[in-house]
Automatic annotation (TrEMBL):
Belongs to the BBS5 family. PANTHER family: BARDET-BIEDL SYNDROME 5 PROTEIN (PTHR21351:SF0), BARDET-BIEDL SYNDROME PROTEIN 5 (PTHR21351). GO terms for cellular component: BBSome; centriolar satellite; ciliary basal body; ciliary membrane. SMART domains: DM16. It comes from the Eukaryota. The BBSome complex is thought to function as a coat complex required for sorting of specific membrane proteins to the primary cilia. The BBSome complex is required for ciliogenesis but is dispensable for centriolar satellite function. This ciliogenic function is mediated in part by the Rab8 GDP/GTP exchange factor, which localizes to the basal body and contacts the BBSome. Rab8(GTP) enters the primary cilium and promotes extension of the ciliary membrane. This is BBSome complex member BBS5. Its main location: membrane. It comes from Myotis brandtii (Brandt's bat).
């Protein structure tokens, strides 16, 4: 279920013949690059998989790795951090000379990093220019409300409210840099509550963004109620089809050439364009790829070869078993050597294992 794309998630690139060199060395797999994460799964055993969100990535580099399938080769190193633990992933492209693994992942991650305004709660940012909101690509202003009080202080601050299809923005009229940007992605609740200033719009942000509770005073009450209704409606629309702001298009394989041709007279030019467009439409509906090959025996139709996917009868154990993550621990996760202890299983002294780990579990990861 976690491998399925969520609303707003778009598949950008799909690379076959990618090896998870650190965790599943020697296992050929597929790498999916979306606008939110990287997904790898084994081709032989799809339930062996992993998902790396771009927000967890600390660094992406290319270095030499030792692959069982390709030997010494250039690989993609991804250093991540989840909670307080660092993990390192190494991916190797098993197709010699193909740079797509590096270009796709690095470029999409860069697009994610440069579009955080769509997704992150921001305070005191460069949001306003000449008293107008600096719009993001794909962003549209649905309402602008003057005379909105921010109730973050005892006196309150008078400012302006912008309601867009991506976020809510408020800024002080006396100081544009005193502002807040609240993406719908980070909004937990939108309500009308009573305060010492009277009825107010209260927006609670997600715990991930800091769990802020912001109050805004909008007069008259009818305008307050209409604004809350509008924000809730836009928030509902956004939740059904989020705009994450990660725009990246794969380069056309043909090189994207632009060619110009001069045809006289104009009547002949117009007739030629009409004819070409007509033929292009016919070709698009039924392309001719020119690959002609006859089998000695007539192959079965695709419908006869299609096998219905059977759901694995697997029981999911909800208990946390950290053994699966051991292979991906980055070296920087270990602060110092632990005290040696005698292992009766091995008959020698070993470094004391972390809580929750067993020798049997470590051997299973290695195998």
């Amino acid at each position: 279920r976690q491998m399925k794309t969520r609303p707003g998630e778009v598949l950008i690139d799909c690379l076959d013949s990618i090896e998870d060199t650190k965790g599943n060395n020697g296992d050929r797999g597929r790498l999916l690059v979306t606008n939110l994460r990287i997904i790898w799964h084994s081709l032989a055993l799809p339930r062996v998989n992993l998902s790396i969100g771009y927000n967890c990535i600390l660094n992406i580099t290319t270095r030499t790795a030792n692959s069982k399938l390709r030997g010494q080769t250039e690989a993609l190193y991804i250093l991540t951090k989840c909670n307080s633990t660092r993990f390192e992933f190494i991916f190797t492209n098993l197709i010699p000379g193909s740079p797509r693994l590096f270009t796709s992942v690095i470029a999409v991650h860069r697009a994610y990093e440069t579009s955080k305004m769509y997704r992150d709660f921001k305070l005191r940012s460069a949001l306003i220019q000449n008293k107008e909101l600096r719009l993001l690509p794909q962003e549209h202003v649905y309402d602008k409300i003057n005379g909105v009080w921010n109730l973050s202080s005892d006196q309150g601050n008078l400012g302006t409210f912008f309601i867009t299809n991506v976020r809510i923005v408020w800024h002080a009229n006396m100081n544009d840099s005193f502002n807040v940007s609240i993406p719908y992605l980070q909004i937990r609740s939108i309500k009308i509550r009573d305060s010492k200033f009277g009825l107010a719009l209260v927006i609670e942000s997600s715990q991930q963004s800091g769990g802020y509770v912001l109050g805004f005073k909008i007069d008259p009450v009818e305008k307050l109620q209409a604004s809350v209704k509008e924000i809730n409606s836009l928030h509902k629309v956004y939740s059904a089809s989020p705009i994450f702001g990660v725009d990246y298009e794969m380069e056309e394989k043909s090189g994207g050439y632009v060619l110009g041709f001069k045809i006289d007279p104009v009547e002949k030019l117009q007739a030629s364009v009409k004819e070409i467009n007509s033929l292009h439409k016919v070709y698009s509906a039924s392309p001719i790829f020119g690959v002609d090959y006859e089998m000695e025996e007539k192959p079965q139709p695709l419908e006869a070869l299609t096998v219905e996917q059977i759901q694995d009868d697997v029981e999911i154990d909800s208990d946390d078993h950290p053994d699966a993550f051991v292979a991906y621990f980055a070296d920087g996760n270990k602060q110092q050597d632990r005290e040696p202890v005698f292992s009766e299983e091995l008959g020698l002294a070993i470094e004391k294992l972390k809580d929750g780990f067993t020798l049997q579990g470590l051997w299973e990861v290695m195998s």
